Amino acid sequence: MARRGDLRLMVLPLVLSLFGVVMVHSASVNISIEEFNDPNYYFRRQAILFVVGILALIIASSINYRLWERYAGFFLVFTIGLLVFVLLSPAAGDVKSWAKLGPIIFQTSELAKLTFILFFSSWLARRTDQIRQMSTFSSFAVLLLIVGGLIMLQPDFGTLAILIFIAGAMYVVAGMSWQQFGVLGLVAGMTGTYFIMQAPYRLARILTFLNPGSDSEGVGYHLRNIHIAVGSGSWWGLGLGNSKQKRLFLPEPHNDSIFAVITEELGFIRSAAVIGLLYYLIWVIVQLAQQTDDLYARYVASGIAAWLFIQSLLNIGAMIGLVPLTGVPLPFISAGGTSLVVLLGAMGILLNISKYRTV
């Protein structure tokens, strides 16, 4: 029977998203003037899509989560269709990750994260007694190869890494054996190494991470300015709107590098509070996964928790020098309409699941 949902799954994402709108406004003024001669361009866009995201959360929370399981196969076909569509459609440059359906333009890889979780959760729930069989693991590998391969053709290495982590985490929750875990780790490592070696700019990011003083005019330049921004904030920051590095020194200050702007303007204490709020939300979702007896709901919650965890880790870790630059947005906070709307929709699904939790 339905009960009152866990309101933390609504309040926390909305607080983070509203904070993101404020920070996008602060971080994007200079780049908005540079690109569109309008200081409020990215702020206005993020604010509008925040409202759309709220609607997505409300609608998703009102739909019984079992409906997503019923149409899981459709979601997979739809995702594959979109990924193929953007590869075949005209696109600027070599990056093909955006789809245009009439007036709506969205990033297919962001939607693919959620639809993959919805399908893979159903796939795992139907194979409870076969999880440790290598034939099941082989089918899983083929599924991941199809979706991941299409994403890599865009190319989007960051999303591929996130997708592999999500899939692996969900399989572990389902009961992956140590043998399967070893095979997945080996294959993921070999795949990552291959794609890094195939693209000079990815290799440059790794080498610059290992030796920040190298490539002073390329990746090293961006990395140095990121570290200057982070270090300049000290304990309490320079004040909202007072970042110096956002003035066209940081790469994508309103998107990939927004955490560097946060630390510069708000300081270590308040940026740490933002991290704490984000990981508190992840902990709430992990709790939800433990509180439901429905395997499908458990895998959906586990997949979304893994998604938020790894994407936050890659973004924040890159800003403080723990991992190489990957170019992934900070959940709920970075500019990006598709990411924000899809994430808030995912929170709506979790809110509905929480209405049927057992404790």
Structural description of this entry:
By secondary structure, the chain is an all-alpha fold. It has one domain (8-123, 196-354). The chain is built from 13 helices and 2 strands; from the N terminus they run ααααββααααααααα. Helix 1 packs antiparallel against helix 13.
Quick overview:
By secondary structure, the protein is mainly α.
Tell me the span between the first and last alpha carbons. 12 Å
Listing every helix as H and every strand as E from the N terminus to the C terminus, the arrangement reads HHHHEEHHHHHHHHH
Helix content: 55-70%
Task: Look at the structure and give the mean pLDDT.
Answer: 87
Based on secondary structure, the structural category is mainly alpha
Q: What is the gyration radius calculated from CA atoms?
A: 20 Å
- In terms of quaternary structure, the protein is single chain
Largest sheet, spatial ordering of strands? 1-2
Q: What share of the residues does DSSP label as strand, in percent?
A: under 5%
Number of strands: 2
Total number of distinct structural domains: 1
Which shape, going by the Cα principal axes? globular
Biggest sheet record: 2 strands, antiparallel
Helical run tally: 13
Q: Return residue spans where pLDDT drops below 50 for at least 5 consecutive residues.
A: none
